[in-house]
Amino acid sequence: MTDQASKTAPAAKKLFIKTYGCQMNVYDSQRMAEAMSAEGYELTEDQAQADMVLLNTCHIREKAAEKLYSDLGRLKPLKAENPDLKIGVAGCVAQAEGEEIVRRMPLVDLVVGPQTYHRLPEMLRGEAPKILTDFPEEDKFDHLPQRRATRRAPAAFLTVQEGCDKFCAFCVVPYTRGAEVSRPVERILREARDLVERGVREITLLGQNVNGWHGAGEDGREWGFGRLIRALGEIEGLDRIRYTTSHPNDMADDLIAAHRDVPQLMPYLHLPVQSGSDRILKAMNRKHTATQYLRLIDRIREARPDIMLTSDFIVGFPGETDQDHADTLRLIEKVGFGTAFSFKYSPRPGTPAYERAEVDTAVADARLQELQALLTRQQKATQESMVGRSLGVLFEKPGRIDGQMVGKSDYLHSVFVDAPDAQIGDLVPVRIVESARNSLRGELAA
Ligand code: SAH
Ligand code: SF4
Ligand code: F3S
Question: Which residues form the MTTase N-terminal domain (predicted)?
Fold first, then answer.
């Protein structure tokens, strides 16, 4: 800003946000930025320029949580230089550790949980406590400022469901995000229409158990998640719908049928199974067997034969034997995943599995390597099977090379395309010509 300009208008304050963890945190960071923009803060990419630094944190594994403290440590010199700098901690570590954060790191000015961040502006003005991590009765989304009518990137997230009642034995989410809550139909449809008006063509519906979403529909009846997707499919200009993350036990018939019936619903499903051993699934409190999961996959593929499946796996859960591990590898062989995330089990304080005896680290490491090697082979085979096919690609940004565009295919692969005349937001047919390590290369279909 020039001197001239700063005389006429007060300089906007700068907000730097760092986001850890899952897509819901990405969505929340955006909503927090909007709440703060109503207070005169604009986003900066440069932490050194910031008047406020907000760390939106993840508690899922020990490493993720510890990252917060090392990042806070690194903020000390910045705060020493600029004592007016505000430092806030949001997200799941804020929820789980609350006061502990301020005790360990006195430079932190405020701590706000995932269900209370609509009160950030009040907290900043000193009109609310400096630590807010309750689960309030009111819905934060009702209290967040209306979005400004700015243009958006072509692909957006939309939270429709939050929280978890499943209580898998390893997982902190039911404690950090609270009980399952579904947002009402008309708010979701309104937000989706608003996004489309602002240039969005692809929406990914978010929830910790997104397919457990349910609510009173426009017709007064109880809607399930499949019905919601059908309603979103009627929005003109919304070309692609995705959702994540789903629990196998909430894959209702109507949702499976929506994969057959709704053309905008992309042929991609992230359906975490965690393990292929019935013994371990039971110890994890997943409430289904490996066979039930496989039957479910069969039914989904019957509805949508070209669907690509992805999953999460935990390796080295307490009590896991070589046989359990072999069962997991066998399940992976049977399903054939497009890609998957796999993690070494991390004991989390407060969860039922925390006190259980751990698998030897070296054993768990070896199992993780073996499992990842198999998943990598499957990913490679899936990507190679795309070569020669024509797929829709939604361009999201220019590539590194002049005239190149990068976008996502129907299957969520990044595709690099030589397309000098294309615009961001174009959704075009692309012929896939080559598979690289984590992306595809394509040519504009004539
Ligand atoms: N709601 C999603 C998962 C959220 S957490 C679901 O139910 O699938 C994302 C992934 O992190 C989980 O699927 C699991 O594979 C992994 N995860 C969760 N807790 C973990 C822990 N304590 N140790 C290792 N991985 C964990
Ligand atoms: Fe965690 Fe299980 Fe809930 Fe997923 S379903 S968020 S893994 S407790
Ligand atoms: Fe992490 Fe919280 Fe998401 S623990 S994975 S940021 S719900």
Answer: 13-129
